[in-house]
């Protein structure tokens, strides 16, 4: 792994800020000043940044699909709500990350991993990774022109909210059902988009992330997968 990628995960800083830190001579590797952010680290390397010490270790990363139940909060600590960590006891000793968070009222597919680079790949808007949802909504049936507005982008609280695709699936018990595909992940994006048209999201169910399908998974289930 390159030094700059390792530091990005450890320090949660941008590439530009890390390049600046390295050029300013604030980074040493095994006691020697390092001026090259593309330096390749090997197992056991000792890295010091402004008196913070890190050891690079090639630990096997973990990758899981997770069916998040409705009602759980994706957070390490929450005084008022049950969190996903309380349902993932065996992962508590690992540093885990989530690719594709869901809010408390939503359910469906998430990816859990210890691989920071993989999370960046799956969540960066520039990579256009698709996330597919089945959304049940109370309110009027949206017109095709409304769906087009969603595709083109709707400004809300200074953010451009948009979908890649939206398809009306039909009615169920008087409610409207839609398939929605996103390639970006603004906070509560789908709920905010439907709210713009005075519609309330009753159920938000993520069924796919990229090529991964929720398929026959049960609520709360973890399913390991591997990448090459």
Low-pLDDT residue spans: none
CATH class of the largest domain: Alpha Beta
In CATH, the homologous superfamily of the largest domain goes by the name Pseudouridine synthase
> Number of helical runs?
5
Helix proportion of residues, in percent?
Answer: 10-25%
Anisotropy-based shape: elongated
Q: Examine the coordinates and then state which fold CATH places here, giving the name of the CATH topology of the largest domain.
A: Pseudouridine synthase
Q: How many domains would you count in the coordinates?
A: 3
Question: What does the average pLDDT come to?
Answer: 91
Major β-sheet annotation: 9 strands, mixed
Q: Architecture of the largest domain, according to CATH?
A: 2-Layer Sandwich
C-alpha end-to-end distance: 15 Å
Q: How many beta-strand segments?
A: 15
β-sheet strand percentage: 25-35%
- Computed over alpha carbons, the radius of gyration is 21 Å
Please describe what this structure looks like.
- By secondary structure, the chain is an alpha+beta fold.
- It folds into three domains: 3-55, Structural Genomics Hypothetical 15.5 Kd Protein In mrcA-pckA Intergenic Region, Chain A (Roll), CATH 3.10.290; 63-124 and 216-224, Alpha-Beta Plaits, CATH 3.30.70.580; 130-209, Pseudouridine synthase (2-Layer Sandwich).
- It is 19% helix and 32% strand.
- The strands form three sheets. Strands 5, 6, 7, 8, 11, 12, 13, 14 and 15 form a nine-stranded mixed β-sheet that branches.
- A hairpin with a 2-residue loop joins β11 (165-172) and β12 (175-182).
- It starts with a helix and ends with a strand.
């Amino acid at each position: 792994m390159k030094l700059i990628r390792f530091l990005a995960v450890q320090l949660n800083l941008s590439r530009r800020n890390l390049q600046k830190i390295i050029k300013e001579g604030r980074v040493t590797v095994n006691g020697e000043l390092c001026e090259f952010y593309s330096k390749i680290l090997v197992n056991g390397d000792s890295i010091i940044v402004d008196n913070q010490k890190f050891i690079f270790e090639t630990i096997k990363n973990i990758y899981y699909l997770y069916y998040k139940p409705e009602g759980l909060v994706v957070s390490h600590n929450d005084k008022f709500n049950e969190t996903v960590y309380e349902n993932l006891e065996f992962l508590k000793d690992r540093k885990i990350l989530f690719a594709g968070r869901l809010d408390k009222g939503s359910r469906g597919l998430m990816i859990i991993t210890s691989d920071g680079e993989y999370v960046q790949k799956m969540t960066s808007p520039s990579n256009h990774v698709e996330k597919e949802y089945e959304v049940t909504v109370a309110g009027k049936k949206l017109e095709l022109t409304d769906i087009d507005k969603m595709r083109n982008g709707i400004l809300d609280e200074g953010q451009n909210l948009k979908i890649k695709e939206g398809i009306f699936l039909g009615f169920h018990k008087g409610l409207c059902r839609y398939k929605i595909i996103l390639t970006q992940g603004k906070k509560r994006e789908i709920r905010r988009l439907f709210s713009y048209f005075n519609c309330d999201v009753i159920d938000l169910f993520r069924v796919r992330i990229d090529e991964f399908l929720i398929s026959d998974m049960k609520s709360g289930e973890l399913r390991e997968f591997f990448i090459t």
